[in-house]
Design a protein that fits this description.
This protein has 824 residues and is of the alpha/beta class. Among the domains are: 173 residues, Jelly Rolls (Sandwich); 48 residues, Low-density Lipoprotein Receptor (Irregular), CATH 4.10.400.10; 272 residues, Up-down Bundle (Rhopdopsin 7-helix transmembrane proteins), CATH 1.20.1070; 31 residues, no CATH class. 29% of the residues lie in helices and 18% in strands. The protein contains 13 helices and 31 strands. Strands 14-15-16-17-18-20-22-23-25-27-28-29 form a 12-stranded mixed β-sheet. A 7-stranded antiparallel β-sheet has the order 2-1-9-4-7-11-10, with no helix packed on it. The chain has a 4-stranded antiparallel β-sheet with strand order 3-8-5-6, with no helix packed on it. It is rod-shaped. The N and C termini lie far apart (129 Å). This is G-protein coupled receptors family 1 profile domain-containing protein. It comes from Strongylocentrotus purpuratus (Purple sea urchin). One of its GO terms (biological process) is adenylate cyclase-activating G protein-coupled receptor signaling pathway.
């Protein structure tokens, strides 16, 4: 019978076949291959297999060792035999490639194999055959038979300093020990120096594994065994035994280029953190074949020479943080076939050469954060076929090409480009990343990343998208949770243009054109009309100035409508929102609408006060004359112009005005987030045990104190004056109608007031909803969405500018009866 075991990190193959001797023995038998499933992260710490063979008492089991090359203490191949005629057990660890055969009487034989899944050695191959007890004497010529009578080894393995017989008999009576050899306590057995402190007992009393913290610790270091709490550190496996502890080596004194060749071979942790190593010798780690974790952080390293890790095939984790590495060369990590974790953050890495990650086929995680990488070449990580986590925060990466993930698509689960000046992600970049769970795209540049509808194509299983730019959340895959690391813009929406929708776009053109043509006509007509009375002249002055203010509002609407067409979808896909809000055109549009709205409010107030005085106090000497009307309207325009200039200056000093409004006017209808603090991202913490923090606001405060003072202060006072004045006028109307009917001087004044009421009323009902909402919002009673904000600013506020020209025609008839003498 032939038993062979070929093993690796993912596949176990077992085959049994029978081989007859002299025409007698087993009939040929085969067992098909057994393939283990793919192991999830973290890989299981070990795999154990066991096979049992039962034979009769008149048979002998001969096990020929064709090939035996396993790694102890990490892997073990153990034979346990119970003879048929007694109950005693014989336990034989098979550790030596010099072993040629074992001869066992009939009974129960158990072969147990344990591996930690690191493919360090070649495995084993055994021939198991059954013979009659009388024919075995001729099978062991040209071999040394151990004292136990069970094992035979190659003759050349006798007295070679390597224990091959489980009873140590091959190293007994070999003469005096060499000066470099280690002599086992209480015996004349000598073993090679490389066998001392290698994690496997080679002496009968296991004294070769004692005092390793002093006998096998380089000068200037501290060594010892203790539990290792780091979750990525070495853990005991069933092969090494539950009492196994990692052997650590800590550098404690300034580095003088000491050799590490004398360190205990079983060392698994080497800590050089903080030592000024500066340069790594290519053979520096050759004697540390069992090294699991290497910490070379803050060692002032400028280079990792290719081949320096070539013999560290068991190395699992490298921490090379806070050095001065500038690039990674081709072959830098050659030999690290089992490396899983690679920390290279806080260096000066500017370049990753092709082939720098050769041999890292089992790499699980790489951290390249806080370096100076400006680009990632296509196929850079293609050798890291098992990589699941790739993080590159705080670099200078401006663009991501479509081949950056070539070769690592199948396993990649986390990608982080946090805090890079990204402005371009090529189409198709994420195609094939079907297992990606978390994607971090957080650009620090003021130039927004250009998006396209298919940017997330291929991310079928994305669970979390972490961003600064809220636009990504609008096109994120449906099942993905979009996490905004910082609070989004108060008026952000997923609209593709800054004008809300098609209805607003159409009405913006209709109202704008109507305001321009209607008010231009009124102005021309008023300038051509020659009033013959002082009342008519005063009225004409007010109406003309109101028409000009409404003309400016029409200009504002046409500017917005035109720029909406010009910018189009690039507002969203190219991220031009900030560019638009801070543009000169938006500043001019904001100034125009501010000037128009405030001039209108003040002119309406002046017009209402004039009607109030004329009706309530018809015989007063303090009426507004034509000259006073011109002076007052001039003052209104100057004051409104100054307010508009102040609004622009305030925006430069504190960009909370137009920068918070796509329609270029900062109405006090929103509140901004304040008292920002870092909040733990519980989703990332629970899934990956990694602490990430989001910036959140604990409260909000009023925005644009200047606009609050103007719109909720001055304008509110103006409309209160208007409201109270017209209440008084209506009471006066009722009185006049009862006393003098609809004749005489008072009746004419009332008629004019009623006509002007249409103009004042439309402005009043456009402004008052905004004022009331502003008061409620700033009192933190309600909040409105950005959609409602857009409707109020674009549709409600300027509509009176389009209606007023048609209302002006109601009072466009000549005044035939003067109400007072003109005082020019």
């Amino acid at each position: 019978m032939r038993l062979s075991e070929l093993w690796g990190p993912c596949v176990v193959f077992i085959a049994l076949s029978g081989v007859g001797v002299n025409g007698q023995g087993f009939t040929d038998t085969y067992i098909t291959s057994i393939v283990s499933p793919e192991f999830p992260w973290p890989y299981p710490s070990d795999i154990q297999r066991q096979w049992q063979i039962q034979t009769d008492v008149d048979q002998m089991i001969i096990i020929f060792i064709n090939y035996l090359d396993i790694e102890h203490p990490w892997d073990t191949l153990t034979l346990t035999h119970s003879a048929a005629h007694d109950t005693s057990l014989t336990r034989i660890p098979l550790v030596s490639g010099n072993l040629t055969s074992l001869c066992l009487p009939g009974g129960l034989t158990t072969i147990s194999f344990c591996t930690d899944l690191v493919q360090e050695r070649g495995g084993f191959s055994l021939d198991i055959r059954f013979y009659d007890a009388n024919v075995t004497g001729q099978l062991f010529d040209d071999a040394f038979k151990c004292a136990s009578g069970i094992e035979t080894i190659r003759n050349e393995a006798r007295c070679d300093g390597i224990v091959d017989c489980h009873d140590f008999s091959d190293e007994v009576d070999c003469g005096a020990c060499d000066p470099d050899s280690f002599q086992c306590r209480g015996s004349a057995i000598c073993i090679l120096p490389s066998r001392q402190c290698d994690g496997w007992s080679d002496c009968p009393l296991s004294d070769d594994e004692e005092q390793c913290d002093t006998l096998k610790c380089p000068e200037g270091y501290s060594c010892g065994e203790s539990s290792y709490n780091d979750r990525h550190g070495p853990v005991p496996s069933a092969c090494s035994g539950p009492q196994w502890n990692p052997f650590w080596v800590n550098g404690t004194e300034p580095w003088f280029g000491q050799s590490l060749q004398n360190v205990a071979p079983k060392a698994t942790l080497l800590n050089l953190n903080g030592l000024p190593v500066m340069e790594l010798n290519i053979s520096m780690f050759d004697g540390m074949r069992n090294l699991h974790t290497l910490d070379i952080s803050s060692c002032q390293l400028e280079r990792l020479p290719p081949g320096v890790f070539r013999k560290l095939s068991r190395l699992w984790k490298i921490v090379a943080i806070n050095n001065s590495l500038t690039y990674l060369e081709n072959g830098t990590f050659t030999g690290l076939v089992n490396l899983r974790l690679l920390y290279l953050d806080y260096n000066l890495i500017m370049r990753l050469d092709e082939g720098c990650f050769t041999d890292l086929g089992r790499l699980f995680f790489i951290d390249l954060g806080y370096n100076q990488l400006s680009e990632i070449r296509p196929g850079t990580f293609k050798d890291c076929s098992s990589m699941e986590r790739l993080v590159m925060p705080k670099n200078h990466i401006e663009s991501v090409n479509s081949s950056v993930f070539e070769g690592i698509e199948k396993h990649l689960k986390i990608v982080s480009f946090r805090d890079n000046p990204l402005h371009s992600i090529a189409p198709g970049t994420f195609d094939g990343l079907t297992r990606l769970d978390d994607l971090h795209i957080m650009s620090t540049t003021t130039k927004r990343i250009q998006l396209f509808p298919e940017i997330f194509q291929g991310l079928e299983n994305l669970l979390a998208l972490v961003v600064y730019d809220s636009r990504f959340c609008c096109i994120a895959p449906e099942r993905a949770s979009c996490v905004e690391r910082v609070p989004s813009h108060p008026l952000f929406t997923c609209r593709k243009t800054f004008l809300q929708n098609l209805i607003i776009k159409i009405f913006m053109w209709i109202l704008g054109i109507s305001a321009l043509l209607g008010n231009a006509f009124v102005i021309l007509m008023r300038l051509r009309w020659k009033e013959t009375t002082s009342a008519g002249s005063i009225q004409s002055i007010f109406i003309t100035n109101l028409a000009f203010a409404d003309f400016l509002m029409g200009t504002y609407m046409i500017i917005l409508a035109t720029m909406d067409l010009y910018i189009g979808d690039s507002y969203f896909w190219e991220g031009r929102a900030e560019e638009w809000r801070s543009s000169i055109v938006c500043q001019i549009a904001g100034f125009i609408t501010f000037l128009s709205s405030e001039a209108s409010v003040f002119l309406l107030t002046l017009l209402t006060v004039d009607r109030f005085i004329c009706i309530i106090f018809p015989f007063s000497t303090y009426h507004i004359t034509v000259a006073k009307a011109r002076i007052l309207t001039g003052c209104i325009w100057v004051f409104s112009f100054l307010l508009g200039l102040v609004s622009i200056l305030v925006n430069y000093l504190n960009p909370d005005a137009y920068s918070l409004s796509d329609v270029c006017i900062g109405l006090p209808l929103i509140r901004k987030s304040v008292d920002l603090y870092a909040e733990l991202d519980e989703n990332t913490q629970s899934r990956y045990d990694v602490a990430n923090f989001n910036t959140v606001a604990s409260s909000t405060v009023s925005t644009w104190e200047f606009s609050i003072a103007v719109f909720l202060g001055i304008n509110l006072i103006s409309f209160i004056v208007i409201f109270l004045s017209y209440i008084a006028i209506f009471f006066r109307v009722r009185y006049v109608r009862g006393q003098v009917g609809r004749k005489g001087k008072a009746a004419n004044e009332i008629k004019m007031a009623l006509k002007l009421l249409f103009i004042v009323g439309t402005d009043f009902f456009c402004w008052m909803p905004i004022i009331i909402l502003g008061i409620l919002i700033e009192a933190n009673v309600i909040t409105i969405s950005s959609n409602v904000y857009a409707w109020l600013v674009v549709f409600i506020l300027p509509i009176n500018s389009s209606i007023n020209p048609y209302l002006y025609t109601i009072i466009n008839e000549p005044t035939t009866t003067p109400h007072r003498e003109s005082k020019k």
